[in-house]
Structures are given as structure tokens and as C-alpha cells.
Amino acid sequence: MVKTTLAIDIGASSGRHIVGWKEGGELRTEEVYRFPNGVTEKDGHLTWDIGALLDHVKAGIDEALKRYPGIESLSVDTWAVDYVLMRGEEELLPCYAYRDSRTEAVIPQVHEKISFSDLYCRTGIQFQPFNTIYQLCADQLAGRLEGATDFLMIPEYLMYKLCGVKSHEYTNATTTGMVSAETGEYDPEIIRALGLPAHLFRPLQQPGTVIGEYRGIQVMLCATHDTGSAVEGIPMEGNELYISSGTWSLLGVKTPKPLTDENSRAANYSNEGGVGYNRYQKNIMGMWLVNRLREELCPGKPWEEITAEAEEKHFDHLVDVNDPVFLAPESMKAAFDARLPHPPKCTAGYFRCAYRSLAEGYRQAIEEIERNTGKQYRKLYIVGGGAKNGYLNRLTEEATGKQVIALPIEATALGNLKIQTEEETT
After folding, report:
1. Within this chain, do residues 201 and 284 fall inside the same structural domain, yes or no?
2. Whether residues 242 and 194 fall in one domain
């Protein structure tokens, strides 16, 4: 009998339920449910509607079971760093979104207790103002950790609500900035230095672990950080460069172990958990730039028209796509204007600037990877929504000199399904 599995893949702007099964030695898939996602503003903060997410997760499972009543296992992956605090079975809401600015005041306080250079040496995780370590310290300062029994990363929370088991999956945990690069477990020295409640940091579990059951379906951990699953889903020949291109562009390469040297820290490279390997990668601002420009300047305009017009214009100034000004601006256009010697004269100029700046960001990042790993790479695999953008792919190939292999596939869902079908443990 063919084993049928279900991947629930949730990104910052949408989620999807994809059923998979093996046929003729190949993994076949069908999308059975899709739903919108996005941050909501509450009391001046950016938050996730975690209740609505759970409702969609369950509705999608219902739909999947209507079409495929014999589903044997399911797993959930989402974006990283965000979490739900728990007091027993009770959620301590709100569930803050990573683009919220609440960590700004606490970051210097964290680095007074343990320097970032020490943090990087211990974890190999790049600095981002939204890293879980800073979010938890912000919660501590606000008194939100008093009485908290658990913190569950978003996918682990959703699976807990399905099967009643609280789990802590390795690949997602590494994004917190608190997992030891040496041991692969939470680093007790970091937790002690920051005065965080030690009971929140449980032993970590590997992708492929079955944690419970929902309506007769095994609930299994995939690489619950969506980038970890996406890299598993790339049909890569050998070990080459990759970009998981969505709201963020996650550009990296597999390495046998974390690289926590000074050059990697200076280049702000991350070492995140993979399925039996380390992902040496960098967060680059990604399609967030053009998505926000489109919402502001030409909502609803087809992407084909946007890219065709951008290709024809001759605005050649660039911006640093990793500049924090682009993280969560009220106006993306104003953010670009603030970083350019003069603004473009037409809408297409903004998109041209964004795409060319992304390609330049990729070039710089690849040079850093090759310098820091001591290896040269020939190919660059691009997966995710951004892989569909032919203009950006051409710019990237020209800027990097690499052979770009763009695969507009649901790589994250494929990796989620692959782990369920090939890596099952108990």
C-alpha cells in the first residue's frame, strides 16, 4: 500500500497543505488547501494571529482527509525565531512577530551580559535584532516569563495543539541563537548568563521523530524551520550553493560542521541545523523589498509587467539590501529614497534598483562563502517563490558568474514530505 503523507508549510504571507506519495520511485504531490497569513497590529506591536493559524491547519487537514483518507503522517514547518509562551496548557499571548521592534532596547543589555563575539563563538548564529534570544530577554524584562512553563516555536506549538505533546526540534532551535554549535543542545552558559529560566530549554529532538497522533495520523517532526526543509527538498547534484528565495533570501551551502571563526562572524554568517549537516548561510532581505514596493506603488500590477518595465529602465544606483532600514518601514519607497543619492523618476526605477541590489547582495555573499569555506562552487540553486522571477535570475547569474538553476518548486513542502517518508524514527 502506498504511504500518503501531509506537509503543512506555513510562510509569513501564506500557508499550504500538500499531500505526497511515492509513485514509480518519485515523490508525487498535490496541493489540497491554501490560506493567507500575515502580521496583525495589536496595541502598537506586530503579532501573529496564532488562533487563526491553528484553525487553518485543522481545516486543511480536514480537506486533505476528504481527498486522501489514508494519510499516515503529517508535519508542520514555518518561519523561524518566533514562539508561543505557555503556562501549562494555557497560551501567554500575544504571539509577537519577528518584525516587531520590541527587542531594540534589550539588545545592548544582552550584550553587556554576554558579548556578541562570545555568543557567536558559542552558537555560530548571525546577529539579527529579532533572534529568539533577544525576544525572550524582552519577555523577561516585561515580566512575561513569570510562571511560564514552556516556550514552543511556532510549528512545535501547532503540532502540540494537534497531538498534545510539547516538542523541541533541533533545526528550528538552532535559529534561537542559544544552541551550542559544539553539542547541538541549548547552551547552559548562555541561559545562566542571561538569567533565563532553565526549565524552558528542553532536550532537542531530530527531524524524523514521531511525537504523537492526530485523528489516527502520526504527527512527526520534519525540519520544522522552513529553510531546513527547503534545503532537503532541492534536487541538488553534489554540494552547491542554494538560495531559498521568499520573503527572505536564505543563501548558503552545506558544511560538515559549524564555522564560528572571526571571518564568519564579521561577515555575519549563520550556522543553522540541517538534517545531518550544518547550513552555513546568510539572511538577505529578499522578495520582501519588491512585495512591499508593489503594495505601495502599483498594487495588483502583474509581476511580468513590473519586471519587463524594470529591465527597460536605466536607473543604476544600488542600495545595501541588508540595511535595517528595509526591515519594517512604514513606507518602502521612503526607505529607498533615504538610501539613494536621488530617487528614481518612475516606479519601474524602484523595482530595477531592488532587483539589481539583490543580485549584488548575492554576489557579495557568495564571495564571502567561498573565502570562508576555502572552496569554489559552480552552481547556484534557487528555489521558492523568487525562483519564478526570470529577470532576477538573469541578474543573479550575471552578477555572480555562477550557473543559476532556478527550480520554481515547493521545495519546503518537498523536504517536509521527504523527511516523513525517508527519515522516520521513533
Report:
1. no
2. no
Residue 23 inside a domain? The answer is yes
Q: Which residues pair with 9 in a beta bridge?
A: 16, 77
213 and 250 fall within a common domain: no
CATH of the domain at 254: 3.30.420.40
DSSP string covering 79-109, please?
-SS-EEEEETTEEES-EE-TTSSTTTTTHHH
The reply to whether omega before 329 is within 30° of 0 (cis) is no
Helix (H, G, I), strand (E, B) or coil at 223: coil
pLDDT tens, residue by residue, 110-158? 999 999 999 999 999 999 999 999 999 999 999 999 999 999 999 999 9
Q: Which residues are catalytic?
A: 226
What does the pLDDT look like over 153-170, one tens digit per residue?
999 999 999 999 999 999
**Number of domains observed in the structure of the chain:** 2
The answer to the question of residue 418 being in a domain is no
What cell numbers appear for 306 in the block? Answer: 513590473
Same domain, residue pair 164 and 302: no
Dihedral of CA 57/62/68/69: which sign?
Answer: positive
**Residue 250 domain-assigned?**
yes
Determine the structural domain holding residue 342 and report its residue range: 235-410
Whether residue 229 lies inside any domain: the answer is: no
CA distance 259 to 279: 10
Cα–Cα distance for residue pair 136/380, rounded to 1 Å: 35
Full-model pTM: 0.90
If you write DSSP's letter for every residue of 227-295 in order, what string do you get?
HHHHHHT---SSS-EEEEESSSEEEEEEESS---SHHHHHTT-EEEE-SSSEEEEEEE-TTHHHHHHHH
Q: In what order do the strands lie in the sheet with 403-407?
A: 270-273, 278-284, 249-255, 241-245, 379-383, 403-407
C-alpha cell at 241: 550553493
